[in-house]
Every structure is written in C-alpha cells, then in structure tokens.
Design goal:
Elements lengths: L5 E9 L3 H12 L6 E9 L6 H5 L5 E4 L6 H11 L4 E4 L5 E2 L3 H11 L5 E9 L5 E5 L6 H7 L10 E3 H7 L10 H10 L5 E11 L9 H15 L4 H17 L1 H8 L9
Parallel strand pairs: 1-2, 1-4, 2-3, 6-9
Antiparallel strand pairs: 4-8, 5-9, 6-7, 6-8
C-alpha cells in the first residue's frame, strides 16, 4: 500500500434503519487507519427508532433531511457535503467488505486513468448467512441496458470525486433505480475498473425497496428509454450478458434457482 493517505467520503441515507445499522457502521469505521481517513455523513429522513442513538456511538456526521424527496435526494445531499477524494454511498443495511477500502485506494493509485471501480458482491441474509457471490462482468452500455437491471453492484461502487462530479448527482426522479441510471451515464465516459474480490455485502431482507419487482421493472424501462435503443438487438445483448454472468457465477446462479436470492429480474 502506498504511504500517501486516501481520503474517503462515505454517505449513508437512513430512515428507521436500526436493525442492521451497527453492522454497516462497523464495516465503515473498522477500516480507518494511518493510510485511510474517512468522512462519513449520515443523511437521516426523520428516524423515530434507535438509528440516531446508534450513530451517536461513531464519529459520523448526521445531516437531518426530513423534507427530502426519496433516497437518492438524501444521497445527493450527503455527497454535496462529504469530504473525500474517493466517494460513494452505502445503505444502512449493507456493508463495505473488510479490507475493501485499502484495495480500492491502491487500485486508484495504480491506475490514475480509472474514474470508478466495482467488484464482487456478497448477497447475505438477515442473519449474516452468505446466500451467494456475484462477480460482475465487463459490459457494453447496450448490454447493460438490455439486461434490465444493474449488474454493477452498488455496494461495491466507488468513484474519484472528480469523476463523480463529471457524471453529476443521482436523478431524484428515480426511487429504486437511480444507481442504474447513474452507472449508465458513467459508462458513457468510462467503464469501471472491475476488481476480482469481494468489496461489499448486499443484505436481502423483507421490507427493502429494491425487492419491489414491479417498481424496479418500471424504472429499469425508464433507464433504457433514456440511455439506450429499445429493440430486439438490445434484448439479445442483455440475454447474452445474463448468460455470461450466470456461467461465471455458478454459486450465485444456484442460489437464484433455489429461491435464496430473489433480487435480480432474470
């Protein structure tokens, strides 16, 4: 690892997220070191449970945002004030994988041409059981839009501040698929560096907004219509990407077939 200090700006939107929040916070603050400095901004939409009490036990900053227009508006507010050269967000029920910050920091040092990174994600259940692992595959913009969901795992995405500012904030017209839209915009500038190790954990549990398949399908269609060319060729390219993902991630495919993972739309 380089001796220079990597400055991380991490945002977490919250609203009554007490159930898993301590695990999220531990996954962030356990990675601060002499070479990694963290500014963590929690954007809270008016929690009435123990969310803010839990947050008080950590050196995170809290921004009250009871009048925001959904999760992506909260994330934008956090990213507007958080300080760091590497920025991104992690939800209050997900986790940054152990050692991920060091690996990503070094990747940006080694590859000054890279604007953003992603990597393998672990799907975990409410009791921390690992349901499956998914290693993302290289995509074209058309195949990424054609598959109908984001094969770039949000829990593993981090960007240079300069690159994030170039792509711009999340579109608050989206309530479920704002990350899908942002990654489509980002792909028009640069493709991410894909790292072959677990960088984050995506927790599946009842009540999370990303499990609403009908809303996801509607917003995924919005992303395709904004950034792509709907039609048979786009659909075929999306199916080909799905096949590559399934073949290269057999445990993840098996978990989907057994019904342990019910998030993806394919």
């Amino acid at each position: 690892m380089t001796e220079s200090v990597a400055r991380w700006g991490v945002v977490t939107p919250t609203l009554n997220g007490e159930r898993f929040f301590k695990r999220t916070l531990e996954s962030i603050w356990s990675q601060q070191s002499d070479s990694i400095r963290i500014d963590h901004v929690i954007v809270d939409g008016g929690s009435i449970d123990r969310t803010l009490e839990i947050a008080a036990g950590y050196p995170s900053r809290v921004l009250r945002s009871e009048d925001d227009h959904g999760m992506y508006d909260a994330v934008n507010k956090g990213l507007a004030v958080v300080e760091g050269d590497i920025v991104g967000y992690i939800n209050a029920d997900d986790e940054i994988a152990p050692g991920a910050m060091e690996v990503i920091s070094q990747a940006f040092v080694d590859r000054p041409d890279v604007g953003w990174v992603c990597g393998k994600v672990a799907y975990v259940g409410p009791d921390d059981e690992i349901l499956g692992l998914m290693q993302p595959r290289p995509v074209s913009l058309r195949s990424y839009l054609g598959i109908g969901w984001s094969t770039i795992p949000q829990q593993t995405v981090w960007a240079r501040r300069s690159f994030f500012d170039r792509v711009g904030p999340f579109d608050i017209d989206f309530k479920n698929c704002g990350d899908y839209d942002w990654y489509a915009r980002a792909l028009k500038f640069h493709h991410p560096l894909i790292l072959h190790r677990v960088l984050g954990a995506f927790r599946l549990h009842s009540g999370q907004i990303s499990l609403d398949a009908s809303k996801m399908q509607r917003e995924s269609r919005m992303v395709l219509e904004r950034h792509g060319v709907p039609g048979p060729l786009t659909w075929v390219m999306g199916r080909a990407l799905s096949l590559r993902l399934n073949l290269s991630n057999p445990s993840w495919l098996l978990a989907k077939k057994r019904g342990r993972i019910k998030f993806t739309l394919d």
